[in-house]
Design a protein that fits this description.
four-stranded mixed β-sheet; Aminopeptidase; 4 strands; globular; 4 helices; about 120 residues
Length: about 120
């Protein structure tokens, strides 16, 4: 799927009121985004061999797939707040399981799955 097709699919999801993520704001300024939706929303993930579904198909399962926080707001707990909000929203929408695929180092990617320390902080 090309970039234009992906953008069109995302616009369709938003127009159809499909939850696709949460925003973090500093006042009126957006300072972060976390993608979270029902696992079925992510077509590639549903076909993934590397990240297979671990729950029964009838179990409401949501997935945290990526974070974006501008450099100017990194290191200020934005990712932690995004994850807490994302999980709360998923549970409020009926999720029984929320999964994520964190990495062990933060890296510099703008489409990052989240550092393992962010997820560990949620469990603490």
């Amino acid at each position: 799927m090309g970039e234009a097709e992906e953008r069109s699919r995302m616009e369709q999801l938003v127009a159809g009121a499909m939850p696709i993520g949460v925003l973090a704001n500093d006042g009126e300024v957006p300072v972060g985004w976390c993608s979270i939706a029902s696992r079925e929303t992510y077509a590639k993930l549903e076909r993934s061999r590397g990240m297979p579904r671990e729950t029964a198909p009838e179990t409401p399962n949501w997935t945290v797939l990526c974070f974006f926080v501008p450099r100017s707001h990194r290191g200020k707990g934005v990712s932690h707040s995004l994850l807490r909000g994302a999980v709360a929203d998923a549970h409020a929408a009926g999720a029984r399981v929320v999964e994520g695929y964190p990495s062990g180092s933060a890296g510099i990617s703008s489409t990052h799955r989240g550092h393992s320390s962010v997820f560990a902080g949620l469990l603490a």
